[in-house]
Design a protein that fits this description.
Blueprint (H helix, E strand, L loop, with lengths): L1 E2 L2 E2 L13 H53 L1 H20 L7 H14 L3 E7 L3 E2 L3 E12 L1 H12 L5 E10 L8 E12 L4
Antiparallel strand pairs: 1-2, 3-5, 4-5, 5-7, 6-7
Helix pairs in contact: 3-4
Length: about 200
């Protein structure tokens, strides 16, 4: 076999320095390539994986730093928002009556029903639930009257200076013969301050 006019079987592998320049460069290139390939397999591949992991960690730390810097730069805004939320919470908490005001609140609800042309048929207190700094008391109300009276009643009660919410509405034709063509059964939830906060 010949390469560039040189017979490979005539070459002395113990005296590579006497070979033609082109063959010496080929041997050097192959030796360098093999060294780089073996170096990659034996040593550099682990370091490349470590470098990639370190670069990923650096990216994550930069993102975290950027987020933290944004939060710190908005700290005063957050503080003012917390003060506003506390102010609103205090305002709402003041709307929670103490337990000794329960009778007065029930009387106000009854008066709103009567003033809107409704007849209060039944009031059934439900099971009270402690929710931390307030207590939730459900009361099932059955009232008779007309649709306009129901709407006005719900509107007036929701605008009272104490918190009362209505749940589980049921309006049907009044078959009991009481005042009004319709009967509404609704759960009114009242809330009482427990003093814990």
């Amino acid at each position: 076999m010949e390469i560039a006019g040189i017979k490979i079987d005539e070459l002395d592998f113990e005296d590579i320095g006497s070979w033609p320049a082109i063959l010496r460069w080929i041997v050097i290139a192959v030796a360098c390539g093999a060294t780089i390939f073996l170096g990659y397999l034996l040593d550099w591949s682990d370091k490349i994986v470590s470098l990639s992991a370190a670069q990923d960690k650096e990216t994550a730390i930069r993102i975290l730093f950027s987020d933290t810097q944004l939060q710190v730069s908005n700290l005063e805004t957050y503080k003012s928002e917390v003060k506003e939320v506390e102010k609103n919470l205090n305002k709402l908490t003041e709307q929670l009556p103490s337990k000794n005001e329960e009778a007065g609140l029930l009387e106000d609800i009854s008066q709103e029903a009567v003033s809107n042309g409704l007849q209060l048929v039944t009031i059934r207190p439900g099971k009270q639930e402690n929710k931390g700094f307030y207590q939730e008391n459900p009361i099932e109300l059955t009232v008779t009257g007309n649709a306009n009276g129901f709407g006005a009643f719900v509107s007036k009660v929701s605008n009272m200076n104490r918190i009362v919410t209505f749940h589980d509405f049921s309006i049907k034709k009044n078959d009991t013969g009481g005042k009004g063509a319709l009967m509404m059964v609704v759960v009114a939830k009242t809330y009482w301050a427990t003093g814990k906060r």
